[in-house]
């Protein structure tokens, strides 16, 4: 069964969004190993909110890219690709629960 390209792109991006959020957190930890406690307490912006907005932006960009790819590549519209996306999303969710210290 073939789904419309916009549905495929959106569902694949939303399934991969936990992995996107985990990757954003890992990059932040790699670049800033230990935050300054004073900066955490008196920061104007919440680091959690900033991380969530970056992950949402990257997920939206991934949805646009996957929609364009699904228009060109019919194999991406198969049921197997949706199962693979759900597996990637589950992997990202499990990786997000792991304490990366």
Task: Give an account of the 3D structure.
It is built from five helices and no strands. With 101 residues, the protein is mostly helical. The chain has one domain. The longest helix has 26 residues. The relative contact order is 0.25.
Quick recap of the structure?
This protein is mainly α. It has helices spanning 5-15, 17-31, 37-42, 47-72, 79-97.
SSE arrangement:
Blueprint: H1 5-15, H2 17-31, H3 37-42, H4 47-72, H5 79-97
**SS elements, strand count:** 0
Question: How do the helices and strands follow one another from N- to C-terminus?
Answer: HHHHH
Please work out how many helical segments DSSP would assign: 5
End-to-end distance:
43 Å
**Biggest β-sheet, characterized?**
none
Low-confidence stretches: none
The whole-angstrom Rg is: 16 Å
C-alpha geometry:
elongated
Mean pLDDT: 76
Helix content: over 70%
Beta-strand proportion:
under 5%
Give the helix/strand class: mainly alpha
How many domains make up the 3D coordinates? 1
Task: Give descriptors for this structure.
elongated, 101 residues, 5 helices, mainly alpha
């Amino acid at each position: 069964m073939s789904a419309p390209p916009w549905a495929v792109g959106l569902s694949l991006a939303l399934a991969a969004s936990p992995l996107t959020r985990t990757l954003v957190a890992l990059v932040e930890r790699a670049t800033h190993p230990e935050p300054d406690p004073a900066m955490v307490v008196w920061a104007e912006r919440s680091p959690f909110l900033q991380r969530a907005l970056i992950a949402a932006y990257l997920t939206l960009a991934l949805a646009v890219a996957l929609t364009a790819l699904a228009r060109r590549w019919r194999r991406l519209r198969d049921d197997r690709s949706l199962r693979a996306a759900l597996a990637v999303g589950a992997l990202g969710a499990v990786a997000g629960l792991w304490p990366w210290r």
